[in-house]
Structures are given as structure tokens and as C-alpha cells.
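Exercise 3.2. Students should predict the tertiary structure of the chain below and write it as C-alpha cells, then compare their answer with the key that follows.

Predict this chain's 3D structure.
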Amino acid sequence: MDRKTSSDPLRRRLRRLSRGEQSEEARAFIRRFHRENELSDVLRRRRESQALRELRRFGWYEHTPEEIAFGARMAWRHSSRCIGRLHWRSLDVVDCRNVVEPDEIASSVFDHLAAAFNGGEIRSVITIFAPVKNDVLPAYIESRQAIQYAGWSSPGLRTIGDPLNIEVTRIVERLGWKSVGDDPQFEVLPLLIRDRNQRRSIHSIPRRVLHEVPITHPRHSMVGELGLRWYAVPCVSGMILTIGGVDYPCAPFNGHYMGTEIASRNLADERRYNFLGAVARGIGLDFEDEIPLWKDHALLALNEAVLHSFQRAGVKIADHHTESDRYMDFVERERADGRQPAADWAWITPPQAAPACPVFHMKMSDQHPVPNFYRDRGSDGAMLRPEYADVDRWRYADRWDRFRFRFRRWRHRRDGFRR
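Answer key:
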């Protein structure tokens, strides 16, 4: 198959940058790298000239190990949907750009999961594989997360497992995977990888790197009888990392869980596992009494159960009040450094007890700065751009930037309709 055809799933997701836009992002990144690391202007001008020369000649340029580590940490710092960015400088960066074969990629991801678990004291880790080199696409992971649960549905029957993963379950089954677990509600899917020639392969998650926590409640034993559980390391593998005009479509990364992510979203959401009614019955709520706030009682109990279970298992997790306070510290530090953090209010504000968290009352804006992570150019990728708010520039530069980026978004939408 010709990798240059528009049928490539990855190519349809990648941002379409003109050579001028790519050069601008490269120049802005290199200048920021040297400024924040207090390197000399002589080194900055030399590196900038080299990168732009490679861009003109090859359509891409190679980041140094120091640049790629700094760029990955900046991408985390700029992630507007992440509340846990206080310790962005501590991100462990694993450079695997020379690893290109699916089996080797899978092995590196399993090593990542083992290192990230860290005996339960979850470490934030990112493993970066080969970038897009002009028109040449690298192998990448199609799985949304490295560890995720299967989902099945059939006409007239209820969904078994995670509804979010019904389609990927069908794909891996067509590739030969078969469910072998004794609990189909929480059946771990294999890692799905597409190689440079568009061939898919599946790779089973080894037991040595799979750490799951059974969910029990400290006061309501019936909650434990529901058989709920969740995995310890949330490793996101389906997003594209972009640094200085170069895209890395295979860059799995993880932090640690916040309790509401598992309880209020994954397990309680009607479009996910939808266990809220079962939990309500487990804690003794009588629906016949038509308690108007039964969902609130059940959500609180489920959040208590998740936090209690992870803490009892010795696995790092945070509650939403603590993470909200940490986010406020992150904002203060960023503002002290002359930066305004990018933030998406709907994602930063916890889904549980939101008004009791300080982030609920904050005014937030998302400048979509790069480096960053994105899913596809049709949504978040189209909005990304260099951020100059903390840089001394020509007085009318901001107006010119707004005009340019509006024109760019219009042009990208027009090109998308034509295709």
C-alpha cells in the first residue's frame, strides 16, 4: 500500500503545516529551549540555522536528546485538559526513536509500564518513538491506552465490558485475539500496533506489568461483591506529540490516577460501565423511597471505594480536592515565571463536588500552545500554535498573530471540505 495515500488513518490525523508554519514552530521552540535553559545566543543562532536548513532540505529535523526531553515536558506543561501538571519538570523521558519494529515497540511499552508502576509509587513517564519524516510515516500504537478493557455488544442485549472499546475489541478479534479471562467485564485487551507498511499486529500485555486493583468499600461489603476493579497505570498511547514542527505519533505517557477519573467517569458514567445503580443498591439505598439525591450518595460511596482500594493496595492515587489545590500551586508558579497556563475548564474542574474545589471559580483560557499533544487535526490539532505571551515583541505582533491563525484555521477547514 502506498503510504502517501489519503487512506492512511494516521495521515488523516496529522496536522497539515506549510513549510513556513513548520519553520515558525521550530524557531519558536529552539528559542524557548535556549531561553529557559539559559543557554547562549551564539548556540541558539547556530542551532536555529541548522534546524531551518534541515527543514528546507528534508522536510524535518532531528531533535537532540536534550531538546526532546524539554519538549516532552513542555507538552505536559501545556496540556490544557490535565489537572496534575504541578510536577511537569519531573517527567521521565525515554528516548526510543531508534525502535521501529512492532515487537520492539511493544517490548518498550511493557518496560514503560513496569517502570511507571514503580512498586505502586506511580512515576510519570513518556516513551518517545520515531517521528514523521516528511512523507514517511512510522509505526504507531492504535490503542487509545496501553491497558484498556474489552467491550462487546449485540442487538437486544446489554453491553458487556467497556462500551468505549467495542470497536477496538472487534478489530483485535478479527486479528485472532480471543477472550480467555473468567470476567468479561474486565478483560484486558492486547496492545494494537500498526507498522510502517500499515499492517496491524496485536501484543498481549504480560502479567508482570499488569497491576489491577479490586474495588471494595471500607463500610459496605456488598460493593466489593460487585467484582469491580481497575488498572493502576493510566498510560495514554493514542495521542500525537508535536515538538517544534515535528510530530511523534507514537509517544505513550502516563501520570497517576485521580479518584474521580475511575469512579465518577469510568465506572459511573452511563456511556461507560454504568455501575451507579448497582453501587446504590450495594450501599442500601431504597429506590422505592424515591430519594432525589441517590446518585450523589452512590457517587460519593464509589469515590470512597476507589480511594480506599488503591490506598490499601499501596498504589498512588489522588483525590480531587488535593489535585485542585496542587493545580492552584501550578498556576501560581507559572504566573510567577511570566506564563499564563492553558486550561480547559470542563476538564480541569472535577466531576465530583466541583464548587467545593478552587478551580471551579477560576477563569480559564486555552491558548493551544506548542509543544503539546493532540488527537487529530480535525479537532484539537487544528488549534495548536506557538505561544508568545511571555516574549517581548513588536507591539502589533499579537494582532497579526490572531489574523494569521484565523486565516490558517479557515484554510484548513476549506481543505478538509475539499477532501
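Discussion points: Residues 349 and 360 are 6 Å apart (CA to CA). The first strand starts at residue 92 and ends at 95.
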